[in-house]
Amino acid sequence: MDTEIQVPINSDQDIVIARQKGRLLAAALSFSSVDATLIATAISELARNIITYAKSGEIRLTAINGSARRGIRLVARDEGPGINDIQQALRDGFSTSGSLGLGLPGVRRLVDEFEIVSEKNRGTTVTAQKWKP
Amino acid sequence: MEVPILKQGDFLIATIQAALADADLLHLRSALLQQVVRCRSRGVIVDVTSLDVMDSFASRTLREIAQMIRLRGAETVIVGIQPEVAFAMVQLGLKLEQVATALDLEEGLAHLKRKSESPA
After folding, report:
1. What CATH code is carried by the domain that includes residue B79?
2. What is the pLDDT of residues A37-82, one digit of tens each?
3. Can you give the residue range of the structural domain that contains B24?
4. Contact A20/B84, CB-based, under 8 Å?
5. For B21-37, how does the pLDDT look when each residue is reduced to its tens digit (9 = 90+)?
6. Looking at the 3D structure of chain B, how many domains does it have?
7. Mutate to test the interface with A, among B54, B57, B81 (most CBs of A within 10 A)
8. Which residues of chain A make contact with B89, given a CB cutoff of 8 A?
9. How far apart (Å, rounded) are the C-alpha atoms in residues A126 and A114?
10. How many other β-carbons are positioned within 10 Å of the β-carbon of residue A113?
11. For chain A, which domains are there?
């Protein structure tokens, strides 16, 4: 059975709530504490992008309890302005210290699978997966 | 969630005790700067032992705190970054450039004492 948790993201407090729920879910799936921290950090960055660029949105956390693989899926969805150039967003900030850009290249390094779907003025959905080793 | 700031001689010690939202971090930044001015502190320690996530905003705010305090002629040391947090920070590409870090409070205080005895 897959468990799904939805966290509405409307304020900076919600960023903290989302990452705490992510950590709990990671612990429930017996991820290592390093991986749980990577998951919580990725959630924090994705939730912050929602607040910064779209003002509101949601984070969905799914525990994937398959027979073959176990892991966590993070979906960050907003109906904000969208990302103009996804290729650039994935390059941007690569060399900066986190003050500029969306920080997406960094988030991509924290997880195993990473996908962005974005449409101008319609919103952005980032899907990330972290598998249990 | 307010971060308590203790005065110990020439130094200030801010101990983060729970997960901080962005607003709390910004509050810590202004509170520390005010206290450094009021107490004429020579050094500041920010203890992040209890922080379980250091994301881009937190690390940027800590860097800003250190830079502002340096402009006041004082030194900042971040102490107690957990190994998991350090791992995630490096993966994320976050750096605390030009900010001193130390293992724990004791090492942080030792660093500040060395600094204030032999100013660069």
Report:
1. 3.30.750.24
2. 999 999 999 999 999 999 999 999 999 987 788 999 999 999 999 9
3. 5-108
4. no
5. 999 999 999 999 999 99
6. 1
7. B57
8. 41
9. 7
10. 12
11. 3-131 (3.30.565.10)
